[in-house]
Each structure stands twice: as structure tokens, then as C-alpha cells.
UniProtKB/TrEMBL annotation:
The protein's name: Acrylyl-CoA reductase AcuI
Species, as recorded: Jannaschia rubra
PANTHER family referenced in this protein's UniProt entry, alphabetically: ACRYLYL-COA REDUCTASE ACUI-RELATED, SHORT-CHAIN DEHYDROGENASE/REDUCTASE
InterPro entries on file: Acrylyl-CoA_reductase_AcuI, ADH-like_C, ADH-like_N, ER, GroES-like_sf, NAD(P)-bd_dom_sf, Zn-ADH-like_protein
Lineage: Bacteria, Pseudomonadati, Pseudomonadota, Alphaproteobacteria, Rhodobacterales
SMART domains: PKS_ER
Domain of life: Bacteria
Pfam families registered for this protein in UniProt: ADH_N, ADH_zinc_N
E.C. no: 1.3.1.84
Enzyme class: oxidoreductase
Keyword annotations: Oxidoreductase
Single annotated GO MF: acryloyl-CoA reductase (NADPH) activity
Length: 328
């Protein structure tokens, strides 16, 4: 039937949560200014939580996850958007507190959207997604504070944030050292532009000496925890670490010595509440800088039906690169 569309719906009862593809109608969608015919979505670590256990992110059930979406405006009561406009949405707690992009139609606030940047298709925008957008914000923060001479370290390198960070830094002409716990991903990471592979176990030990040799000229860290604590002591004098994620843990068992004796900067990166102008700037930069053939290398194509398994996989650190969900 033409007035129904497909969505991944998560229900919760006493036995836990269950995700399944269901038919919905426009009347099922929440009220908001803009109705989008979603063409592509993607999978981030947070999506794994929202498809599965919720992780304290989902407020109400039934819930439609999907923190990212790209598609075409179908109806709009806001002057900024008209039917036919191509749009992208990341962040704003869409897919967590609000119904998200794992649906052929979504109803969202105009404030949350940005126009699809020139030079990107909706599919490429979702190959980037929150993970790649965040990688761009992290790289921009490092640029603002200045790179030092040594290689730039990327942790969680085969994941979504890490893969895009490797490709962006390489496109900027940086020597990139990729930290991975999956040695079989070496060819993939070198294909994205990594010049050096650092085994995860090299950075796994907790801090024993607060300062080690000055090795890294910058860092995009998707892992946090003991790894972040350890690498702070390996940064060059005045170098910066963009702290993006917590794939390895939320604690920071570090000392303040690298800050005091080496002037190391720890830069916090948030993608969810970035103001509109910053979003547009970061998306335009992605469209200009990111080599599209390298983006394509990262893509794992998927459908709504694949998401329950892929959501569980990403929570176990088993997804490589960027999953692109086709909703057409
Ligand atoms: P992915 O799961 O795609 O990537 C995470 C990567 O981290 C894995 O692929 C793996 O890489 C590595 N990893 C996983 N578990 C561990 C572990 N126990 N110890 C060390 N390394 C590990 O997730 P995303 O790239 O989507 O997100 C990465 C992190 O960034 C998440 O914590 C996410 O919540 C956060 N994030 C934050 C945002 C923000 O606004 N600040 C926005 C987007 C994401 P490998 O196998 O190569 O070692």
C-alpha cells in the first residue's frame, strides 16, 4: 500500500528490547515541521545502543532509532525548506530521544537539518554520517591548535570515526599512525592513507611513567579510557589530542603531568549540539577534502533488516568502516 512505509521499530517489555521491521503510516510519526523521504541512513556506536539495550539514551518505546539521515523534503511548514530539497540530519538526539532515520519517512524539526552540501550525494553523506562529521570536527580542532612535527595518531582506526579521520588527515598530507586491535585491517587502513600501524596492545597498558618519548604530533582519539591516559604521555611538546569517543571506556586514569610539563592540550569534541554555521562549515569541508574513492572503500551496504545484527556487532567493536543503510 502506498501510504505505508517501512521502519525499524524497537519495542520494550519485561524481557528487554526487540527490534523488527514494521509498516508505519504518516499518522504514526511525531509532529514536527519537516517530513523527509529518507534515502539513506547509517550505523554509529550510539545506534548499536539504541537498536539494542538503549544505554539510557532512549526515552520512550516504541522507538525508531537512527541518529543520522539524508533524503528529500516531502512537506515542510518551515520557510527554510521546500519539497524537493535534499537534506542531511545528524545529532540533536534524533534516533535517541526523538524518532530517527531507520524509517523511509521521518518527521523532524527544521532547526536540526542542514542542506546537503554541494558535491555530495545523500548516500555519500551517510557514508560520512555522525562518525565522519565528528572526525572532521576533531581534525578542525587539531588544526586550530596546530599540529606538531610527528605523525598524527588515530585510535579505534578501523571504526567509523577512525576510518574517516585517517582519510581526512592523509588528505591534509599528514603522516598517520593508525591504532587497531584488528591486525587483519592493516591493508584497509593503509588504503585509507595510514602510513604506520600501531597494535592496540602497544597502548593498552595503564600509565606507569607519566611521560614517555615525545612521539605524536596530534591525535584523534575514539577510544578513551586507559589508552587515552597512556597516549597523553607520548604527545610532543604543545601537541593536542581531540577526545571523541569511549569505545575503550569512559574513565581517564591519567596524571596531569603531560599538561603541566609538555603543554599538551586535551580538546573535547561534541557533534550533537554543534550550531548550524559550524555544521555547514564542517560539511562543506568534508565535501572538499575527503577523497570519495577512499570514502567508498569504507562503505558496508545494509538494509533495515540487517540492522539488529549490525547493531550488536558495532557494540562488540566488530564493524569496519561505515555502514550505509539503503531505505529506497
Ligand atoms: P566504531 O565501533 O565504528 O569504532 C570504534 C573502534 O574502536 C572499533 O572499530 C575498534 O577499532 C576500537 N575499539 C573498540 N573497542 C575497543 C576497546 N575495548 N579498546 C580499544 N579500542 C577499541 O564506533 P564509532 O567510530 O562510530 O564511534 C567511536 C566512538 O566515538 C564511540 O565511543 C562513540 O560513542 C564516539 N562518538 C562520539 C561522538 C561525539 O560527538 N563526541 C560522535 C560519534 C561517535 P579497531 O578494531 O581498529 O581497534
Amino acid at each position: 500500500m502506498s501510504d505505508t512505509f517501512k521502519a525499524l521499530v524497537v519495542d520494550k517489555d519485561d524481557d528487554g528490547t526487540r527490534a523488527a521491521v514494521r509498516d508505519l503510516t504518516l499518522d504514526d510519526l511525531p509532529e514536527a515541521e519537516v517530513t523527509v523521504a529518507v534515502e539513506y541512513s547509517t550505523l554509529n556506536y550510539k545506534d548499536g545502543l539504541c537498536i539494542g539495550p538503549g544505554g539510557g539514551l532512549v526515552r520512550n518505546y516504541p522507538h525508531v532509532p537512527g541518529i543520522d539521515l539524508a533524503g528529500t523534503v516531502e512537506a515542510s511548514s518551515d520557510d527554510r525548506y521546500a519539497p524537493g530539497d535534499k537534506v542531511v540530519l545528524t545529532g540533536w538526539r534524533v534516533g535517541e530521544a526523538h524518532w530517527g532515520g531507520y524509517s523511509q519517512k521521518a518527521r523532524v524539526r527544521a532547526d536540526w537539518l542542514v542542506p546537503l552540501p554541494d558535491g555530495l550525494t545523500t548516500r555519500q553523506a551517510m557514508a560520512v554520517g555522525t562518525a565522519g562529521f565528528t572526525a572532521m570536527l576533531a581534525v578542525q580542532a587539531l588544526e586550530d591548535h596546530g599540529f606538531r612535527a610527528g605523525p598524527v595518531l588515530v585510535t579505534g582506526a578501523s571504526g567509523g570515526v577512525g576510518s574517516v579521520a585517517v582519510a581526512l588527515l592523509s588528505a591534509l598530507g599528514k603522516e598517520v599512525a593508525a591504532v587497531t586491535g584488528r591486525p587483519e585491517q592493516e591493508d584497509y587502513l593503509r588504503g585509507l592513507g595510514a602510513t604506520r600501524i600501531v597494535p592496540r596492545e602497544d597502548l593498552a597498558e595503564t600509565v606507569k611513567r607519566p611521560l614517555e618519548s615525545e612521539t605524536w604530533g596530534g591525535c584523534v582519539d575514539a577510544v578513551g579510557g586507559a589508552m587515552l591516559a597512556r597516549l597523553l604521555g607520548q604527545m610532543e611538546y604543545g601537541a593536542s589530542v581531540a577526545a571523541v569517543g569511549l569505545a575503550g571506556g569512559a574513565s581517564l586514569p591519567a596524571t596531569v603531568i603531560p599538561f603541566l610539563l609538555r603543554g599538551v592540550n586535551l580538546l573535547g569534541i561534541d557533534s550533537v549540539l554543534q550550531p548550524y554555521d559550524n555544521r555547514v562549515r564542517a560539511w562543506d569541508r568534508i565535501a572538499q577534502l575527503l577523497p570519495m574513492e577512499r570514502l567508498e572503500e569504507m562503505v558496508v551496504p545494509a538494509t533495515l533488516e540487517d540492522l539488529p545484527k549490525l547493531g550488536a556487532d558495532i557494540l562488540k567493536g566488530q564493524v569496519r568502516g561505515r555502514v550505509v543503510v539503503d531505505l529506497n
